[in-house]
Amino acid sequence: MTQARRHSMNEQPDHSAWAERLVRSEPGIASALFFTADGLKAGAHAMDVDTQDSVASMGSGLHSTAKATVRAMASGDGAELEIRNVVVDTDQGYLIVMDAGKNTRLAAFTTPDAELGTAAYSMLKLIALVGRGVGAETREDVAQ
Length: 144
What we know:
By secondary structure, the protein is of the alpha+beta class.
C-alpha cells in the first residue's frame, strides 16, 4: 500500500460544525458526534477531545450489536436489515444513535430532562438538512 493511500484512509471528513449546530439549536442535546460506520470520529461538539475516538468506536459497536441482536431475534430469514436508530435510556439522559448518510452515524447525548421525541426530531432535521453531503467511505472502499 502506498503512503498516499495510507494517508487517505486515515482522513475523515470533519462534521464538527454540524455537530455544533445541533447542540446549539436543541437545548435538550448536551453533546453530539458524527462517526463512520467503522468507528472513526468525523466531528464532534461539546465532548472532551480525548474521548471522541473511544465514543466513535463504541457508537459503531453499539449500532452493530443492535443490528446483530435484532437479526438474531427476528424471523432469521437473512434479509438485509437496516437499523435506523438506537436509543439508550439512562438516568443521565438519552443516548441516540442514527444513520446520517453513507457509512456515517450521528450520536447525541441529551440532558436528563430532555424530551426524547424533540431531540430525535432535531437530529432528523439536521440529517435532512445536511443530506447526502455527510458520508464517508469505508476503509475497505478507500483501500481498493
